[in-house]
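not sure who needs this but someone in the group chat was asking about non-specific serine/threonine protein kinase from Saponaria officinalis so here u go. i didnt clean anything up, its just raw.
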Amino acid sequence: MNILLQTLWLTTTILIRQLVYGDYDPLSYNCAESSYSYSLGGKFQANLNNTLSRLLDKASTSSFANITNGTGIDQVYGLYYCTRNIDHQACHSCVQAGAHKIVQLCKSLKEGILWYQDCTLRYANRSIFSLEEETPVYPYYNYTSNVSSYILDPYRDKFEITMEGLVNQASNDEGFATTLVNLSSGMSLRGFVQCTPDILGAPCYRCLSTALRLIDLWANTIVFLPSCLLRFDIYGSPSPINPIPQRHLSVGYIVLISLLSVIAVSFLLGGFWFWKCRPTSQGLLIKVTQAEASIQEPTERGRVHGLARFTYSQVEEMTNWFTRKLGEGGYGIVYYGCLSDASSREVAVKVLSKNDAPKQFSTEIDVFGRISHKNLVSLVGYCEEGTHLALIYEYMARGDLKVLLTDQTDSLCWKNRLYILIDISQGLDYLHNGCSPPIVHRDVKAANILLNQHLHAKVSDFGISKIFPSEYVSNLSTRVVGTPGYLDPQ
């Protein structure tokens, strides 16, 4: 009977915690599937558990901490940071939930990050301290209360001035700034920005500026990057963006807890009876095995790689029926486009048209499903509808490096050229040494290096790249492929 009461108490405690904290499901998470994996029960897992435990201890007294544990290939780097508008108790609760979730969501992978409203938690087998990283990024949209763009357009300048002021203030002070301003007699704007304390100054400014650029429409509430976050809320008429709901234990919840407790007791008593009258353990094992096997169903390509799938009509709409051509490659034409969702994000759409396009299409999706790096172009999604194949990438405003190098009216200074070379080398180093298994691009050239508006370079076009098992890297061979008359230096 004591065991039954203890179990009931534990069940009730869990139910209360889930109701108070909403089970602490993260707003989003990212597990670097291209990173190395670790063996369950091995040394890396032990170091990871130790790192998360030590981080949790620090969360009781500090809103930020970074810790490293172990050496060599089993070394773990971990950090968390909580928003500055919560107390240490709330910070500890958030990190505690994150430490529990991240090992489930990123099981066996050596790198992962998850975002909550109140905290960010990440770990990796590489140094992640004092880094200003633009990826992975997660924009949180409030879909429940859309704000009419035409109504808020008159206040857009004030909004931009306010948020840019917060970015400047945070980068010049302690990596944190917040404000509340009136947009009109009926509307107010609350802005909030924060960086991790290990990237203050210029890195903080660049991180928050990147987040600010991702706010294209007013429906965007929070933008999370690995080392910073930017948030705003609109209050008042018309059609306000409601703030993210806070956790409260209402009378309704208390009643619900009581009902769930009664149900829990019933289940426990029923379970006790079932245990006394249960069938053989072997029979149960067979049933459980069959049940587990039944859920191992193949998933579609996009879900496996975490990519959005678009219909061909959506591709036509986002490109305005292919009106603006950006360029033409070996396997298709690239068009400018904008997503039709609330973000209106600018994209580049490659429509594949060659006979061997399906092979290049599959290769790019397979590669992009494994990689995530600030110096590699991001794949937003794809279209695979009959004979229509298209790949949707992030838009790089300055185009490719080849055009920029040959354009006499917009010549690059040597300082910018050096930065571009560093960006390229970091992207290739990640492909060769940061991916497991390693990836060889096989067509590195100026035309496949794209630049954003700030001249940050990213490697693109993985249609003929090759994934090599790590045991063959020291003795790999590949035929000459790519651009005729040009040999990739890899």
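also Residues 1-22, 237-251, 279-304, 471-477 have pLDDT under 50 and may be disordered. if thats useful
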